[in-house]
Each structure stands twice: as C-alpha cells, then as structure tokens.
Specification:
Blueprint lengths: L2 H13 L6 E5 L2 E2 L8 H9 L4 E2 L6 E3 L1 H9 L1
Parallel strand pairs: 1-4
Antiparallel strand pairs: 1-2, 3-4
Length: 73
C-alpha cells in the first residue's frame, strides 16, 4: 500500500466524528459527508482500478460490492 494513502487513512480516522475513513456510496452520495458523487466518479469507484477519495470530506470511497464481501467474511 502506498504510504500516502496509509497516512491519509490514519489522518481521516483520527479527525472523523464517527471514526470511519472508508465509506460506501449510498444513494449516489458519500457515506461520510453525504455529498453527491458524480456518475463518472461512481463508475471509476466500481471499476476498482484506483483508490478514490471524496472531494469534500477526504474519506476513501468504496462501492457496495466491497461492503458485501466484507460482511461475508
């Protein structure tokens, strides 16, 4: 993992009110700050080719498929 993303993760965890640094997209919005995510950005997140952070709160965004995989484990 890139050291920059690890630093970002720990910074967000420490500063976030609920302690969540990685949040899913729920109803076309960030699961942390509830800001609307543009459709093209949502497609990029679902492709899993790179790590994408919310433009407003900085939290790392994931799609529901990853959330469901984590629940299965």
């Amino acid at each position: 993992m890139d050291a920059r993303w690890l630093h970002t993760y720990t910074r967000i965890r420490n500063n976030a009110r609920n302690g969540l640094a990685v949040v899913p997209i729920e109803r076309d919005a960030c699961g942390g700050c509830f800001s609307k995510i543009p459709p093209q950005r949502q497609i990029d997140i679902k492709m899993h080719k790179k790590i994408i952070a919310c433009e407003y709160c900085g939290r790392i965004l994931v799609d529901d498929a990853i959330k469901e995989k984590a629940a299965d484990k």
